[in-house]
Specification:
Layout (H helix, E strand, L loop, with lengths): L7 H21 L1 H8 L3 H6 L3 H25 L6 H26 L4 H25 L2
Amino acid sequence: MQSVGVNYSAVLAAAVGGFVFGFVYYMSLAKHWMAATGKSEESLKAGGMARPMIVTAICQLVMAYMLGGVLGHLGAQQMTIKGGLITGAFMWIGFAATSVTVNYAWQRAKPMLSVIDGGHWLGVLLIQGAILGAMGV
């Protein structure tokens, strides 16, 4: 296992990339997502948007930093766009998809919510992995 430094520019770029992807993704699937959650646009707006946006931005930074750490520990030969995509996909299969599915199963949420949110996290991890792989950690 290698010890690696951190390319904070790459982490920030990956976090921003994931955040922007999420914005576009959920804007395009807003009606389907709201139907799967059972929430209305009015109820979502009533709760305010600042707190979820701040939490999302912080979590995107943490996710990008951790994914960069995993990539770095895999070694310099994996520090490519392809290596980042593969690592992001593995992290999604092993952690994100399974966590989302288990949480929603226990919440008795509609299966479509797992599909929509799982697809979001797949996109985020692939984008972050590609950016981190391209820029290096």
